[in-house]
Design a protein that fits this description.
By secondary structure, the chain is α/β, with parallel strands linked by helices. Helices cover 43% and strands 15% of the residues. α2 packs parallel to α3 (48-61), α3 (48-61) runs parallel beside α4 (77-86) and α11 (236-246) runs antiparallel to α12. The radius of gyration is 18 Å and the shape is globular. 52% of the residues are buried.
Amino acid sequence: MNTRIQQLFNIQYPIVQAGMVWCSGWKLASAVSNAGGLGLLGAGSMYPEVLREHIVKCKKATDKPFGVNIPLLYPDIEKLMNVILEEQVKIVFTSAGNPATWTSFLKDKGITVVHVVSSAKFARKAEQAGVDAVVAEGFEAGGHNGREETTTLVLIPIVRDAISIPLLAAGGIAGGRAMAACEALGADGVQIGSRFAASAESSAHENFKKKITETTEGDTVLTLKQLTPVRLIKNSFFQQVQEAELRGATKEELHSLLGSRRAKHGMFEGELDEGELEIGQVSACIRKIQPAAEIVKEVWDEYCSVKKSFCQ
């Protein structure tokens, strides 16, 4: 791959660990950064002072660059932004909202800004808003997803043709073969979520990590399209959602079914039946819980091996 992503973030490998709610705390972010990638704290599941605590601990655990992912629909987002400024975070990934709202504010403070999109339309808007790079996330990804349902294989070349700034591919990427494929499609680097969610340093519950390694093809489904689409592992909670949608439940009923702690209950507290278990399709390829540094090395080594085979 070219070096645009390495230069932008001052990292060794163009591998970014996604800022996943309930999975991406300081232990994971610092481990990925220490291994040569870019670790991200997932602020979407953190109160402002909890985010501050994770930033402080991450700084103590690594002298390498790391960043924070902030969903722009987060309530009281101003408080999170103030913490980022006060703690002098240098890299911010934004998602789930309009990048024009905060990009100028952050860049005026010397912060590198990256925005997550699910379509070429929003990639162009992000570039126009002044972001430094874009993450194009395909339909395969875990967690909250785009309504367009465009797969990574289709999305990356479309977005590459639409923008000139650096492009990270996300969705369905867990190894070096996928990384090489994304490069061929026009990506400058990759963002990996699900495999790091199952890492030793992930702050997810051990029950959830084990469940990820047991997931097989077809065990995840994109659902809740009336609200914000989200990819979930099939379980009792998923069945309740599916039944509610089939009988034509209102948005209010679906919100009530979700409640305020459903994702925490599943991913952080380990309730595998009634919790919301967000993970990508690529979980079907993940068979073991590994240290984050080992994951980074395996991804990069496999990528280099694939590249070498292309040149023979």
